[in-house]
């Protein structure tokens, strides 16, 4: 009887461990999607911001930021 109890306990622990791994994987995937959404929001804001009052340096920095975000979002 004790052996069956140990086997059942080991099986239950394995199921719980597998569930924790799956939950961690799903949390990681959700965090990655949230990061991509935030990057796309930032990209959109940069695209929509008026540039008429920006000097050459600010325009160059804006262009670098857009290229960086665009490259990471894909």
Automatic annotation (TrEMBL):
Residues 9-36 form a coiled coil. Keywords: Coiled coil. The keyword Coiled coil applies. It comes from the Eukaryota. This is Uncharacterized protein. The lineage of its organism: Eukaryota, Viridiplantae, Streptophyta, Embryophyta, Tracheophyta.
């Amino acid at each position: 009887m004790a052996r069956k109890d140990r086997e059942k306990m080991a099986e239950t622990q394995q199921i719980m461990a597998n569930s924790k791994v799956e939950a961690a994987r799903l949390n990681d995937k959700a965090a990655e999607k949230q990061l991509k959404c935030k990057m796309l929001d930032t990209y959109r804001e940069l695209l929509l911001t008026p540039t008429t009052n920006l000097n050459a340096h600010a325009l160059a920095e804006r262009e670098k930021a857009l290229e960086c975000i665009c490259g990471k979002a894909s």
